[in-house]
Design goal:
Length: about 220
C-alpha cells in the first residue's frame, strides 16, 4: 500500500482525537472565561492586544515575508538537528527559501505550521509585557500558516494534504491547550486531562450506541 494511503487512513483515525480535544479545549476555555474570569486578567488583555496589533499589521501593512521565511526554514533546520540530522544548505529570500538536509520526515516537513518559533523565543523571560509579544508572535504564526496553506505548499502535498492538515490542526490545538493551562490559574494539567478523559468516554459510549443501533436493524 502506498505511503500516502497509509497516512490518509491514519489521518481519518486522528479525526476523533481532534474532535475530542477541540471539545475539551473550548469547554475549558469557556469555563475559565465565564466562571473564572480569565478575561479580566492582565495576561489575557496583553495577549489580546498583541494579537490585535499583529492582525492590523498583517492586513494593513506590507507583510514581512523574509522574517516569516527565515523562521519557517529555521524551524525545518531545528527539527532536523533535534532528530539527529545535518543541514548542508540554508537559503532565505523574499521569494521563498529551502534547506538541504540529511534527514526528512513528516515532522520536519510540517514543523513550521505548528511550531511557533518566534513565540517560543519570546517566552524568555516571563513578565506581563511578554504576553503582548507572545500574542503578536503567535498570531504572526497563525496568520502566515493559514496564508501559506492556501498556496499549495509542497511541505503539505509531499506528505499528503489531508494528513498534513489533520496533523497541523491537532498540533496547533495541543499548543493552544498548553498555553491555556499555563495562562489560567484555575486550569491544571490534571483537570484538563480529566475533562479529556470524560469527553473520550462520552465519545466511546456514543460510538458504542451507534454501532448497537446498526446491529439491531
Amino acid at each position: 500500500m502506498p505511503t500516502r494511503w497509509v497516512k490518509f487512513i491514519f489521518a481519518i483515525f486522528l479525526l476523533p482525537i481532534c474532535a475530542i480535544l477541540t471539545q475539551t479545549f473550548f469547554t475549558a476555555f469557556a469555563r475559565a472565561t465565564v466562571t473564572q474570569r480569565l478575561w479580566a486578567g492582565e495576561e489575557f488583555w496583553f495577549f489580546s492586544l498583541g494579537a490585535v496589533l499583529w492582525m492590523i499589521a498583517f492586513f494593513g501593512l506590507p507583510r514581512p515575508i523574509v522574517i516569516y521565511v527565515f523562521g519557517h526554514e529555521l524551524t525545518h533546520a531545528l527539527w532536523v538537528w533535534m532528530m539527529g540530522g545535518r543541514v548542508s544548505r540554508f537559503r532565505v529570500s523574499s521569494e521563498g527559501g529551502h534547506v538541504v538536509t540529511s534527514k526528512a520526515n513528516f515532522w520536519i516537513a510540517l514543523a513550521p505550521y505548528f511550531f511557533p518559533l518566534y513565540s517560543i523565543l519570546a517566552m524568555q523571560p516571563y513578565w506581563q509585557l511578554l504576553y503582548a509579544v507572545v500574542g503578536a508572535t503567535w498570531t504572526f504564526h497563525f496568520t502566515f500558516t493559514c496564508w501559506m496553506i492556501l498556496k499549495n505548499q509542497t511541505d503539505l502535498s509531499d506528505q499528503g494534504t489531508f494528513f498534513s492538515l489533520v496533523v497541523i490542526y491537532l498540533m496547533n490545538l495541543l499548543l493552544l491547550s498548553v498555553m491555556l493551562i499555563l495562562a489560567s490559574p484555575h486550569i491544571t494539567f490534571a483537570s484538563f486531562s480529566a475533562d479529556l478523559l470524560t469527553n473520550l468516554g462520552n465519545f466511546t459510549q456514543w460510538i458504542s450506541e451507534l454501532m448497537h443501533s446498526f446491529t439491531q436493524r
